[in-house]
Each structure stands twice: as structure tokens, then as C-alpha cells.
Specification:
CATH superfamily of the largest domain: Ankyrin repeat-containing domain
Structural class: mainly alpha
Strand content: under 5%
Keywords: ANK repeat
InterPro entries: Ankyrin_rpt, Ankyrin_rpt-contain_sf, Cul2-RING_E3_ligase_SR
Pfam family, one: Ank_2
Helix content: 40-55%
Shape: elongated
CATH topology of the largest domain: Serine Threonine Protein Phosphatase 5, Tetratricopeptide repeat
Largest sheet: 2 strands, antiparallel
Order of helices and strands: HHHHHHHHHHHHHHHEEHHHH
CATH class of the largest domain: Mainly Alpha
Protein name: Ankyrin repeat protein
Radius of gyration: 26 Å
ANK repeats: 76-108, 109-141, 141-173, 174-206, 206-238
Length: 294
Amino acid sequence: MTDDLLLVAADGGDLELLHKLKAETEDDEFFNRKCESVRDCEGFTCLHLAAEKGIIPICRFLIEKVNLDVNIKTDRGDSPLLVAASKGHFNTAKYFIIRGADITMSGYQGTTCLHLAAEKGNKELMQLLLLKGADIEADSVRGTPLQCAALGGNLESVRFLLCRGANPNSVSPLSVTPLMGAILCLSSECLELLLKAGADPNISSRGLSPLAVAAQKGSPEFLRSLIAAGADPNSVTTKFQDHDLKPIEHAAEAGNHEGVGILYPVTQSIPSYPDWSIHGITSYFHSQEATIQV
């Protein structure tokens, strides 16, 4: 038996070949160790390859007949459950859960199965994971499951998680808030759901307020919704040549003339602008005089 044959059989869904290889090996423990140790160039075992393809019969054979650990990890730390969920093979993921997979186990970048189910929008798997005790606020490099869902603009996942008590103001060092995620992916539906659930429109991410980012993105609908929800049009963030800017200046910088018009009535005048008008703000911001003063 060659090592490559094990991987080829698992990856190709060749259950007959796996049975044959097992039968040819008189020592079951030796065959088990082979299945655990033989890996491809990405550090995947036979079980991970089958999980990646969603081939349940192969997974069942390796777990129930060969006694492979359902939580065996790839070289970078992903379990078969995480591999299956990342590829959208939710029936395979449910099989692993039934067989006792650790649903709290995190893999690469701290991602759990709930993060992946939220990104993919699979409500059935999210429901199962929460029933089994998954942490709805599990953190990762990309934030909580709600942060992942919002940044991906997955409306159904955002609605599902909010209805089950997910924090709409989740803050993580390396990821943006759910509200900021909705703005960045231009999902007005997610933004409205988050605001209704109590998302704070004044929590900044990476030095920018939601209103400043909406002004840059050029969406008048987002600006109006944020202002109506209490976003501060006079908050300042550092963005332009280390100069503190108000949201209206972010709109001017981006050439968002409609945004400047929306923010103008609610923004306190800035003394350095010689002409505090909608046209004057845009013209002055890009003028040589303004650049020199900054």
C-alpha cells in the first residue's frame, strides 16, 4: 500500500479502494496510524480530503471503521468539521457533529464552525450549533459570527443572529463592527437591521466613524439612516494628511457632492473654510490653499 493511494481514494470518493487497502493491511492499528499520518501538501489527512469534497460515505468509513479522531487537525489547525463547513457541505458538517465533533474548536485565524455557517448563511447549521452550545460571541481574527455575516452582507445570517441575542456592537481589535461591516459591503438591509437592534452609529472602527465611511462610499441612503439613528455629524477622525476631518469633509474628499449636501444642514461650520456652503466646502477642500493650511 502506498501513501498516495490512501489520499487518492479519499479525495476521489473511492470507498471500494479504501476497503481493499484496509483488508490488505492485517494490522488495523497500523492502517489507522497511516490514515492519521499520511497528509497531502496542504497538511490534509484522508478525512479532511473527504470532508472538503463532502463525501459522507468516506467520512463514515474513516470514523466508524478505521476509528479516526473526528477532531483530527490539519497542519494549520482545522478540523474536518471546519473544512466541511468552509466548503458549504452542511450535511457532512452535521454528520461530524452527530459523531461528536467539538463545535467550539477553532481553526485558522480563530474561526469556529458558527463563523463559517454565518458567512455561508446556513440557518439550519447555525441553529444546530447554538442548540449544541456554540458561543454566539466567539471571537476570531475576523470578529464574531455577526461581524463576519455583516461584513459579507449576509442578511439572513444577520437577522438570525440578532434574533438570538448577538451583540450588535461587537468590537474586535482586527475587525470592524457589524454596522461598519454592513456599510463597507453596501448592504442597506443589514444596516437597517443592525440599527433597529441597537447598533451604536458612533462606534468607530480603525479610526473612522460609520458616518465618515458612509460619506466616503457615496450612499445617501446610508447617511440619512445613520443621521436619523443619532450619528454625530461633527465627530472628527484622522484621515487626510494627519488632519482631523468631519464626515462632511470625508464626503468632499471622495467627491460625494450629494453627501456634502445631506451633511451640510447638520454640520457645524469650520472656521478655516472661507465659504461655508455646499459648493464652497467641496471647492475649498481640494484647493491649494486648503492643502497648504493642512
